[in-house]
Amino acid sequence: MNPRTRHALELVLDNLVWFMLVFVLVVFSLLIPNYFQLGIFANIIEASSVLGVMSIGLALVIIAGHMDLSVESVAALSAMAVGIMFCSSGIGLGLQLHPDWLMVPVSLAIALAVGAIIGVINGVLIVRLKMSAFIITLASYIWVRGLVLVVSGGRSAQDLAPAIRWFGIQRLAGLPLTAWIAVGCFVVFSLILAKTPFGRHLVMIGGNETATFRAGIRVNRNLIIAFVLAGAIAGLAGWLLAIRTSGATANLGVGLLFNAFAAVVIGGVSLKGGVGTLPGVYAGVLLLSAINTAINLMGLPANFTQVIHGLLVLAAVLLDAFKQTIRQRLA
Amino acid sequence: MSEPLLVLDNVAKNYGAIQALKGISFSIGRGEVVALLGDNGAGKSTLVKIIAGGLEPTSGRMLFEGKEFLAKSPAEAKAAGIETVYQDLSLCTNVDVVANFFMGREITRKVLGVPVLDERAMEAVVAKALANAGTRIPSLRTKVEHLSGGQRQAIELNRFVHWGGKLVLLDEPFAALGVEQTRRGLDMIRQVASQGIGVVIITHIMQQAFQVADRIVVIRQGVVAGDVARNKTSPDAVINMITGETLADAGPAN
C-alpha cells in the first residue's frame, strides 16, 4: 500500500463518524419528504445543544480513562437551582436583580458552581481514596437526583426570568444563542484537548496512567480538574436546559445520561480511555439528533427512538472493533 | 573522586512484616556506571523505585549531592535531576512518538496567554535526538502502539539520553532489544556517563554488567552482598555473590 492511500484511509478512519453523519443526512434528505430544509438542519443543531454540552464533560473524563455517571443529575440540580431562584411561578422565588441582565451572569455562575462543587466531590473521592469512578459517580447520580427532589419537593418551577430566557429566543444566523453556546464549547474544548499540555496530559493519562505518573505529570491534579470540568460543563448543560424549558421540573433531563454515552461512543471515544476527539463527539451528538428529527418527521412513535439509539450504540462499538482490525493491518 | 553523587545509608523497606530491603548502603559517583545485580526478588526494583520517588523507604536516608534527599513523587526526583527507565515500558501507546518523548515536559508557546503545544519545535528536537542516536523510526507522528518492541525501547533510551539530568536509573532496559540495539544502548550508557552523569543499571545479564559498569553492586535478600570494582572481580565471583555461596572475597561490605 502506498503512503497516499494509507493516509487517505487513516483520514477516513479518524473521521468516520463525520462521514456517517453526512451519509445519514443525505439518505434522510433523499428518502424523507421535507427533510432537506435549512430549518430542519438548524433544528438538528438546536435540539442537540444540551446533550452536546453534557457530552463534552463526559468525553473529557472518559478520555482520561475514567467515567462520570453523575452528569445528568448534576445538570438537573443546576437547572433546579436556577429555576428556584429566577422563576416567577411554581416553586420559583422570582428573584429580581437590577439591571435585568445581571441575572444572566449570576444564574450562569450558580449553575457552574453547583456543577463544579459536585465535580470536586467526585474527583477528590476517586483520586484520593482510589475508588472506582463508576461507583463514586453512580452514587452521585443517585444522591444528586435525590437532592433535586428534596429541594423541589417534587414540584416544578416555571416562567424563567425573560432576561435569561432571551438566550433561547434570540437568534443569530438562524440558530438560537443557546445553540451557539454549545458550538462554542465544542470549539474551545476541542482546542484545549488537542492543543494544550493539559489536554495532551489527559489523553496520555487515559492511555497509561502509570507512565504519566512516572514521567512527573501530576496525574491526581489533572484528574480532579477533569472531574471539576465535567461537573461545571454539566452545570452549563443544566443552565441551557432551564432556558429551553423555561424552568425546571424534578425529573428534568432523565435519560440524558444514556444519550450522552451513546453520543460519546458513537463519536469514537473508547470507554477504555485515551482514545477519541471532541469534534468526533459533536458529530455523534449531531448524528443522534439527525435521527431523532427523522423519526419525528416520519411520524413514528417516539418510543422507537430508544430502540434506534440502542442499536446505534451497538453499531458504534462493532464499528470501533472493525476499525481496530483495519488499523492493525495498516500498521 | 570527590563527594559522591548519591549515597544510600541503610535504606530499608518493609511491606507489613516482609522486609524487602533490610538496609542498603552504597554510593554512586559522578560519571560512574554502577551495575546492580541480584536474583529475582532480591529487592533491586524496590530500591530503584525508592530512589526515583515511586516508593517511600521505611527507614534509612539518602544524600544526593551531599544534601539529605527523599523524593516523595517521581516529579520531585525528576526536578532533582534523576531520570528513570523502568523495566515495564513507560510509554503511552495511544499517542505519537513526539508526545511520548516530551511526556510532561512539552514545549509550549503562549497564544493569548494560554500555553499551546509547539508541535513543530518538539518534532524537530525528537528528530535530532533520534538521528544522533542512530535510531530509525519511519514517522514521528506514528502512534507508539504501531511500533515494534525494539523501537519502543529505543524511544525510552533516547529519552533518557536526551534529558540526562544528574543521575540515571535503568531497570533492565535491554529486555526487548536485539544484539545490535543492545550494543548501541550500552554505548549510550557510556556516553551519558562520560558527561559526568551517574548511572545505575539493573540487569540480569552478567556480560552486560561487565561490558558497561565501573562497579558492581550485588543485592541478596535485601542487603548488599557485594560492592566491587569491575576490574577487581570476575563473573564467577559475582555469580557466587548473587547466589550467596560465598561472602568472602566479595569486597568490602561498605
Quick tags:
heterodimer, A: 331 residues, mainly alpha, ABC transporter involved in vitamin B12 uptake, BtuC, three-stranded antiparallel β-sheet, two-stranded antiparallel ribbon, 15 helices, 4% strand, B: 254 residues, alpha/beta, Rossmann fold, 2 domains, 33% helix, disordered C terminus
Give an overview in words.
The complex is a heterodimer of chains A (about 325) and B (about 250). Chain A is mainly alpha-helical and about 325 residues long. Chain A has a single domain (about 40-330), classed as ABC transporter involved in vitamin B12 uptake, BtuC. Helices cover about 75% and strands about 5% of the residues of chain A. Chain A is built from 15 helices and 5 strands. Chain A has a 3-stranded antiparallel β-sheet. A two-stranded antiparallel ribbon of chain A has the order 3-4. The N and C termini of chain A lie close together (about 10 Å). The two termini of chain B are about 15 Å apart. Chain B is about 35% helix and about 30% strand. With about 250 residues, chain B is an alpha/beta fold. Chain B folds into 2 domains: about 1-80 and about 165-180 and about 205-255, 3-Layer(aba) Sandwich (Rossmann fold), CATH 3.40.50.300; about 90-165, no CATH class. The model of chain B is unreliable at about 250-254 (pLDDT under 50). In chain B, the strands form 3 sheets. Chain B has a 6-stranded mixed β-sheet, sandwiched between helices. Chain B has a 4-stranded antiparallel β-sheet with strand order 2-1-4-5, covered by helices on one side. Chain B has 8 helices and 12 strands. The chains are: A mainly alpha (about 325), B alpha/beta (about 250). Chains A and B meet through helix 10 and helix 11 of A and helix 2 and strand 8 of B.
Outline of the structure:
The complex is a heterodimer of chains A (331) and B (254). With 331 residues, chain A is mostly helical.
Q: Can you lay out the helices and strands and say which pair or pack?
A:
The complex is a heterodimer of chains A (331) and B (254).
Chain A: H1 3-14, H2 16-31, H3 38-47, H4 49-63, H5 71-86, E1 87-90, H6 103-128, H7 133-152, E2 157-160, H8 162-169, E3 171-172, E4 175-176, H9 177-195, H10 197-207, H11 209-214, H12 219-245, E5 247-248, H13 256-266, H14 278-298, H15 303-330
Antiparallel strand pairs in A: 1-2, 2-5, 3-4
Chain B: E1 6-15, E2 18-28, E3 33-37, H1 44-52, E4 59-64, E5 67-69, H2 74-80, E6 82-85, H3 97-101, E7 108-111, E8 114-117, H4 119-133, H5 149-163, E9 167-171, H6 179-194, E10 198-202, H7 206-212, E11 215-220, E12 223-229, H8 235-243
